[in-house]
Amino acid sequence: MFGLFKKEFKVLSPLNGKMVPLESVPDPVFSQRIVGDGVAIDDLQGDIACAPVDGTIVLIFRTNHAFAVKMKNDVEILVHIGIDTVELNGEGFERLVEEGSVVKAGDPVIRFNRNVIVTSGRSIISPVIITTKENIAQLSVNVVKQVSTGKDVIFSYKLK
Predict the structure, then answer these.
(1) Catalytic residue among 40, 50, 80, 107
(2) Catalytic status, residue 65
(3) Taking the CB of residue 9, how many other CB atoms lie within 10 A of it?
(4) 94-124: per-residue pLDDT in tens?
(5) Residue 119 sits in a domain of what CATH number?
(6) What angle do CA 1, 73, 34 make, to 5 degrees?
């Protein structure tokens, strides 16, 4: 009964594109929720990945293809731009902030070149997941088709 009164936290889209279920990601690590739960963004428009929540950048992969934001409630959100993009060794990705930076939802974090990803034969579909799923009591995915960076809620959650 007390779970009804727990605060709901909202996660905004870090990318412009079409929201799709995590099961659509052509990588079992994401589609089978091995590293966490969430959604994916496909048919990316634009060239900036932004922070989906207020928090601290706790990780930016050396290849700049993915980053994680940790909120004050210790929940971490991972934004992974494309699939198998680590194999590009940083080509087409530019870091706009450093690890340890405090960000607000909608702040630019990574600039990417969509054409580099697509012409390399990799998928542009981009998972956005909660990696600290053991802290989550309830995850609610928003049913939105097209999402805009920093504007549309892609999912919300409640803590245990």
Answers:
(1) 80
(2) no
(3) 17
(4) 999 999 999 999 999 999 999 999 999 999 9
(5) 2.70.70.10
(6) 85
